[in-house]
Amino acid sequence: MDAPHSKAALDSINELPENILLELFTHVPARQLLLNCRLVCSLWRDLIDLMTLWKRKCLREGFITKDWDQPVADWKIFYFLRSLHRNLLRNPCAEEDMFAWQIDFNGGDRWKVESLPGAHGTDFPDPKVKKYFVTSYEMCLKSQLVDLVAEGYWEELLDTFRPDIVVKDCPRWLGHRALNPSTRFAARADCGCTYQLKVQLASADYFVLASFEPPPVTIQQWNNATWTEVSYTFSDYPRGVRYILFQHGGRDTQYWAGWYGPRVTNSSIVVSPKMTRNQASSEAQPGQKHGQEEAAQSPYRAVVQIF
What we know:
Layout: H1 18-25, H2 30-35, H3 42-48, H4 51-60, H5 75-83, E1 102-106, E2 112-115, E3 131-134, E4 140-147, H6 155-161, E5 165-172, E6 185-186, E7 193-202, E8 208-212, E9 217-219, E10 228-234, E11 243-252, E12 263-271, H7 279-282, H8 292-297, E13 301-306
Antiparallel strand pairs: 1-4, 2-3, 3-12, 4-11, 5-10, 5-12, 6-12, 7-8, 7-9, 7-11, 10-13
C-alpha cells in the first residue's frame, strides 16, 4: 500500500496567508519594499500599502512600543521620518573644535572651545556633554547650512507632508531668565553678555520661506550662570523648503579681553515624525500672498525650558 501523499508544495509565494506575507515584508528593507517589491504584482502592492505593515515595521525597529497610544496619521511616512530622525547639525558639542561650523563673525579674541563647567560656570544637565563654544568681547557668530535633500528627505516628503522641524540651542549665559525662545546657552556668573539666534527655512534657490529670529537676549553681570534650552518648532510652513540656516553667537557686555561672552553647546535641528500642519491654511486662497508674509502667519510654536 502506497504511503499517503504529502501536501503539495505551494506553486507561488502568493498562496501564503496574507498575514504571513505581511510578516515577511516586515523583514525587508523599506526602500526595497517601495522601489522593488511593490512593483511585483497588485497583491504585493496592496499589502505594502497597508498601514498595518508599516506599524509592524515601526514596532520591529523599536520606533514605538507595544503600548503605543499616540495617533499617527500615516504610518508609512512616520516610519521613514523616524528612520531619518537625528540631529542634522554636525559637531554640536565642540568635540571636534570648530569643525563643520562656518565662522561668520570672529571678533575680539575670537571663538574658542572650552571644557565644562568652565570658569564661573555650572555643569551641563547632560553629563555626556563635555565641551562648549564661547564668544569674546566683540561679536562672534557661527552657522551651518543644512541641505535637507542631501540628508535623505526627498522633495515630495517635504512638500506634501511638511513634517515639523524642531530647533534647539543650548546657550548659557552668566545671567538668568528674561529669555526669548531660541536655544540652550549660558553666561559666566561674573560677566554680562548678549546672545542671539537666527534660524531660516529656505528654498532651493535660497529664498527665505520662514524664519525665527527673536530679539537678542542681554544678561546682566553677576548672574547664576544657568544653562538654558530654547526650543522652537516650525510647523505648517510653506512648500519648497530645501535648506535650513542655523546661526548663533554673541559677545560679552563688559568688553573684557578673553572669552567672557555667551557659551553655547548641544544645538540641534531635528525633523520630527510629527505633522501638525493645518491643511486648509496651507493651501493658497484667492488673493492670499505667499513667501515671507505667508511664513509670518504660520502657527509656529516656541517652548522655553530653563534648567
